[in-house]
C-alpha cells in the first residue's frame, strides 16, 4: 500500500458502517465487557484510529496520539530517560525542544550531550562517548534545514547501546520514514504538515509495540491526551497529506531557486539546492525535500521583519505546514527562548526568515516575495 492509499485509508465503523471515523465526544463509556474503552483520557475510538493511521504511514507497529508535539516528545522521552542516562542532541533544533532537553532533563539529572550542527559532528560526538542511551534528532532541522543521516547515525548510536528517536515533522512520512532507516521511534508535531490546515494542536509518535505500549501508559498518567474532535480533524487533514506534499515539495523547490538568485537575499537554506551542504545526504534519504525554505535577508533583523510584514499573500505567523504559506522570524519567534549566544552558536542570524510554503500558485508566492524584498532597496 503506497502513501496515497495509506493517507486516505480509514477504518469503517463496524457497528454503524460509517465510512468516516465518528467523533466519540464522551468522557467515559458504559462499563465494557472488555478493557479497551473506559475513560477517554485513557482510550477513545476516534483517537485510536488516528494512532493506527500514523503507525501505518510510518511503517511502525503501533502509534500513540498526544495533545501536542511537545507532549509527544516529552512523554516518549520519559519512557527512555532517568537520572544518569546519557542523551545526545544537536544544537540546530526547535527552540522549545532544546529547552526541554538542555534545561528540564539536565536539571532532572539526565546527562545531555550537545553536538554541533551536522551529521559528521553528531557521529563524532556519539563515537567519543563510552555509553549512549538515547539519540534525539530532527530528520530536517529547524530552522536551518540540515538533513541528518538517520541511517548512519542509527548505526553508530546502536553500537553504543543507544535508542534513536527522530522528530520527523519537517520531512513528514511522505518524504522520509525514519523507522525504515533503523530509527526506533518517530515523533511528529502533527499540527503542521500532517493535519495541514493550521487548525489543531496535536502530536504523534510511532514505533515498536513493546515500546509504544509503555509510552501510552505514561501518556495516560501524564495526561498528555488528545481531544477526540482534534483527532477527527487530524484524520481528515491526513487524507490529503500525499497530494499536499507533492505540491508543497514542488513549490518549495521553485521558490528556493528564486530566492537563491535574488539580490536582496544573502543565503538560502533548502536541502533540494545543490548549494546546500547536505544535498548528497538529502538526495539519498529523502523522497522530497520538504516545504520549508529558510533564507537570510541582506541587512539587519529590522530589514528581515520589514520583509515579513510587507507580504500580502504569505502570512506572518509562528507556525508552519499548512495549506497556506506562512513566514516567521526565528530569532524573535520560534527560537526566541534561545539566548543570542545560543542562536549564534547554532548559526541562526538575526536576519533569518523561515518560510513554510503552501499549495498556492508558486508564481503568486514569488511575486509576493519579490515585491517585499525589493521594498528594502
Automatic annotation (TrEMBL):
The keyword Lyase applies. It comes from the Archaea. Transmembrane segments: none annotated. GO terms for molecular function: cysteine-S-conjugate beta-lyase activity; pyridoxal phosphate binding; transaminase activity. The keyword Transferase applies. Keywords: Aminotransferase, Lyase, Pyridoxal phosphate, Transferase. GO terms for biological process: methionine biosynthetic process; transsulfuration. CDD domains: CGS_like. InterPro entries: Cys/Met-Metab_PyrdxlP-dep_enz, PyrdxlP-dep_Trfase, PyrdxlP-dep_Trfase_major, PyrdxlP-dep_Trfase_small. GO terms for cellular component: cytoplasm. Its cofactor is pyridoxal 5'-phosphate. PANTHER family: CYSTATHIONINE BETA-LYASE, TRANS-SULFURATION ENZYME FAMILY MEMBER. This is Aminotransferase class I/II-fold pyridoxal phosphate-dependent enzyme.
Amino acid at each position: 500500500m503506497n502513501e496515497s492509499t495509506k493517507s486516505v485509508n480509514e477504518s469503517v465503523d463496524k457497528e454503524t458502517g460509517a465510512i468516516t471515523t465518528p467523533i466519540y465526544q464522551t468522557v467515559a463509556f458504559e462499563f465494557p465487557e472488555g478493557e479497551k474503552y473506559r475513560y477517554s483520557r485513557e482510550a477513545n475510538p476516534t483517537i485510536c484510529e488516528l494512532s493506527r493511521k500514523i503507525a501505518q504511514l510510518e511503517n511502525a507497529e503501533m502509534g500513540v496520539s498526544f495533545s501536542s508535539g511537545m507532549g509527544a516528545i516529552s512523554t516518549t522521552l520519559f519512557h527512555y530517560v532517568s537520572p544518569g542516562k546519557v542523551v545526545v542532541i544537536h544544537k540546530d533544533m526547535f527552540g522549545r525542544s532544546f529547552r526541554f532537553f538542555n534545561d528540564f532533563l539536565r536539571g532532572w539529572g539526565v546527562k545531555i550531550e550537545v553536538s554541533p550542527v551536522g551529521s559528521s559532528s553528531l557521529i563524532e560526538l556519539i563515537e567519543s562517548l563510552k555509553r549512549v542511551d538515547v539519540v534525539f534528532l530532527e530528520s530536517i532541522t529547524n530552522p536551518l534545514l540540515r538533513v541528518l543521516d538517520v541511517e548512519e547515525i542509527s548505526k553508530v548510536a546502536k553500537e553504543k547501546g543507544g535508542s534513536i528517536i527522530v522528530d520527523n515533522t519537517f520531512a513528514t512520512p511522505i518524504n522520509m520514514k525514519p523507522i525504515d532507516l533503523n530509527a526506533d521511534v518517530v515523533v511528529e508535531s502533527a499540527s503542521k504538515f500532517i493535519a495541514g490546515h493550521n487548525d489543531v494542536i496535536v502530536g504523534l509518535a510511532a514505533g515498536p509495540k513493546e515500546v509504544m505500549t509503555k509510552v501510552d501508559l505514561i501518556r495516560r498518567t501524564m495526561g498528555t491526551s488528545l481531544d477526540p474532535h482534534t483527532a477527527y480533524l487530524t484524520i481528515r487533514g491526513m487524507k490529503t497529506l500525499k497530494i499536499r506534499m507533492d505540491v508543497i515539495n514542488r513549490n518549495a523547490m521553485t521558490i528556493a531557486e528564486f530566492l537563491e538568485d535574488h539580490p536582496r537575499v544573502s543565503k538560502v537554506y533548502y536541502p533540494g539546492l545543490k548549494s546546500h551542504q547536505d544535498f548528497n545526504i538529502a538526495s539519498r534519504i529523502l523522497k522530497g525535500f520538504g516545504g520549508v525554505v529558510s533564507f537570510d535577508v541582506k541587512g539587519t533583523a529590522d530589514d528581515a521583519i520589514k520583509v515579513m510584514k510587507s507580504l500580502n499573500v504569505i502570512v506572518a505567523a509562528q507556525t508552519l505546514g499548512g495549506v497556506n504559506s506562512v513566514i516567521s522570524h526565528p530569532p524573535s519567534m520560534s527560537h526566541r527562548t534561545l539566548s543570542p549566544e545560543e542562536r549564534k552558536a547554532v548559526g541562526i542570524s538575526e536576519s533569518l526568515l523561515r518560510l513554510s510554503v503552501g499549495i498556492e500558485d508558486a508564481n503568486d508566492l514569488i511575486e509576493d516575495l519579490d515585491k517585499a524584498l525589493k521594498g528594502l532597496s
